[in-house]
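= Protein in question =
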Amino acid sequence: MSDDQKIRYMGLDFGTAYSYMSCISPDDGESVKLLASKEVWYEKRGIPSFVWCSNKNGKIQIKVGAEAERALWNDPGNVVSSIKMKLTQKEPFILNGRSFSAREIAGHVISYIFEKAREAADEKYFEMSPKDIKIVMGVPIRFGDEEREILTSLIREQGFVDVELIPEPVAAALNHVKKEGKSCSEVLVCDVGAGTFDIAFLTRNLVRTPEYPYPYKEAASDGGFLAGNAIDEAFADYIIGKFGSQWSPELIARVKDKNDHERSRFIKQVREFKERISTEKFIEGALCIGNSYAGVSLSLEELENGLCHRIVDKSKV
């Protein structure tokens, strides 16, 4: 394969809930292609950023992605999610009696993302030569040196030496400018992710340096957890309030306890309902707590009106 057929740049979105990888097509320098295949990726949602420490007949194994997400049904206590926002956590994760650092958990997710990207590149796209590839990764604007160093080192452990981390709002502004074909003196970016939320006000960067070569810089920013995870939590509380009479008080108490694994299972079901209602506008189905099922029927309009007050109240806490 000739040099001009090799991938030169790859983009990594290490998400709180789902992760993606893309590349610049060698046959068309302006074409960005998602490194995905039906066999190994959730094409719309990406790879679930979940890690599961399974124990099958005494054999401990680490599972990542969709298999780990499914384990929330039957083994939620040994599943780690949202590791992106726990990179600097000092307390270890104890899974099936084994201790894992936050860096180790994140490393399993990133290793799996690159593994699947390699499969997709080899099977469907182009030659993937790590020594010739630059990895560009977006990170939350509030990430400090410690988070950035952890992510850079984890990527380099995959064999990719040239790594650049760009604040996600800056990347969004650059993409907007490219699509519009004109620069803006000021840009407001709202990044509502599957797990977290970033908002940043950017201005022109008049003094570019090797450490910060981008045409935009942060003037003010805020962020937090008012996004996918918070919406899922609010949706779960809304469902319990609206349909909870079909469950016993003991089951309701379990699912309200954020330290109880039953809540993790319930949140997974709620998330799937959320994804359905966004396209179907009206849903009917059953939600389970323990072995007890409750019927649920809900319209998108009804849900939005109900969630609005809960999320606003949550943001004031």
About this structure: The chain has a mean pLDDT of 81. The helical segments are 66-70, 102-124, 145-156, 168-180, 228-243, 249-256, 261-280, 300-315. The longest strand covers residues 216-224. The longest helix spans residues 102-124.
